[in-house]
């Protein structure tokens, strides 16, 4: 299997507070990884380090063979942060156009990508409204569309479906599965939702800056003799205490 992202002995503290502790992880091409764990576990810090927005105190992260941070590699990553970084005074379409303009593509391709991304998150009818008039869920959806705009090889999505209704959540997940299966994209998703974690090929359960357990949802359930991933998480947490 081809490794897309390798995380080796990565630790990070903010001031005196250790946030990630000796994380080792290999992310294979064409798979969906779920980072799950309670609030404050260190999931966002880990994804921020993968995209190169934070530097590890020790250890190394390589993406597509390049040590991060690396500006060239950033072009190949679609990143959806937890808080929406949008231009409020511009319309949805203007936001999409702006982010598309950061990448090399012709006019026709750009219009095609905008139509695809807006359609995927069901924002076609709201594209000409200013983002300041969008609801929280609409802003999340626009952020997801922006993460997909340049057709990146890697998608890193920090809680992508928060505030999104179940029907649209279902269609977004179907599209993520299609992107993985048909286009070989590598996808990392952080989530609190166990149903979503079930759809991942591999789940890394993170608590207090450590990976408690990792593996396919099925293997984890068997390993911990658990009915669901919530139970795995509780049992794995008890073992490490
Ligand atoms: N820039 C920062 N400066 C200081 N502390 C930080 C910074 N970023 C994160 N932290 C702290 O690091 C810890 C881990 O935060 P992180 O956002 O990575 O958690 P998380 O697992 O993503 O949580 P959530 O699910 O709530 O998003 C928290 O205690 C947080 O307060």
Walk me through what this model shows.
The protein has a six-stranded mixed β-sheet with strand order 6-7-8-3-9-10, with helices on both faces. The chain has nine helices and ten strands. The protein has helices spanning 43-50, 71-74, 92-101, 107-120, 136-147, 166-183, 194-198, 217-223, 229-240, and strands at 3-14, 17-28, 32-36, 58-63, 66-67, 77-80, 154-158, 186-191, 202-207, 210-215. The model has no long low-confidence stretch (mean pLDDT 92). The protein has a domain at 1-76 and 182-241: 3-Layer(aba) Sandwich (Rossmann fold). The chain is of the alpha/beta class and 241 residues long. The two termini are 34 Å apart. It is globular and about 50 Å long. The structure holds adenosine-5'-triphosphate. Adenosine-5'-triphosphate binds at residues 14, 19, 37, 39-45, 82. Adenosine-5'-triphosphate is lined by residues 14, 19, 37, 39-45, 82. InterPro entries: AAA+_ATPase, ABC_transporter-like_ATP-bd, ABC_transporter-like_CS, P-loop_NTPase. Keywords: ATP-binding, Nucleotide-binding. It comes from Weizmannia acidilactici. This is ABC transporter ATP-binding protein. GO terms for molecular function: ATP binding; ATP hydrolysis activity.
List the helices and strands and how they pair.
Blueprint: E1 3-14, E2 17-28, E3 32-36, H1 43-50, E4 58-63, E5 66-67, H2 71-74, E6 77-80, H3 92-101, H4 107-120, H5 136-147, E7 154-158, H6 166-183, E8 186-191, H7 194-198, E9 202-207, E10 210-215, H8 217-223, H9 229-240
Parallel strand pairs: 3-8, 3-9, 6-7, 7-8
Antiparallel strand pairs: 1-2, 1-4, 4-5, 9-10
Helix pairs in contact: 3-4, 4-5
The structure holds adenosine-5'-triphosphate.
GO molecular function, one term: ATP binding
Protein name: ABC transporter ATP-binding protein
Domain ABC transporter: 5-233
């Amino acid at each position: 299997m081809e490794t897309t992202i390798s995380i080796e002995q990565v630790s990070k503290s903010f001031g005196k507070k250790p946030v990630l502790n000796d994380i080792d992880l290999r992310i294979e091409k064409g798979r969906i990884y779920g980072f799950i764990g309670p609030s404050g576990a260190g999931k966002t810090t880990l994804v921020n380090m993968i995209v190169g927005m934070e530097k590890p105190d020790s250890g190394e992260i390589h993406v597509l063979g390049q040590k991060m941070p690396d500006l060239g590699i950033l072009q190949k990553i679609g990143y959806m942060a937890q808080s929406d970084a949008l231009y409020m005074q511009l319309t949805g379409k203007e936001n999409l156009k702006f982010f598309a303009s950061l990448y090399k593509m012709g006019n026709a391709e750009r219009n095609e990508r905008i139509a695809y991304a807006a359609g995927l998150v069901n924002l076609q009818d709201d594209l000409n409204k200013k983002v300041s008039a969008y609801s929280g869920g609409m802003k999340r959806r626009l952020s997801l569309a922006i993460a997909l705009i340049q057709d990146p090889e890697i998608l890193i999505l920090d809680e992508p479906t928060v505030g999104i209704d179940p029907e649209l959540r279902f269609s977004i997940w179907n599209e993520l599965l299609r992107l993985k299966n048909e286009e070989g994209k590598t996808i990392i998703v952080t989530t609190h939702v166990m149903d979503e974690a079930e759809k991942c090929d591999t789940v890394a359960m993170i608590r207090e800056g450590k990976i408690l357990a990792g593996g396919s949802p099925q293997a984890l359930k068997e390993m911990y003799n658990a009915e669901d991933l919530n139970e795995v998480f509780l049992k794995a947490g008890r073992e490490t205490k």
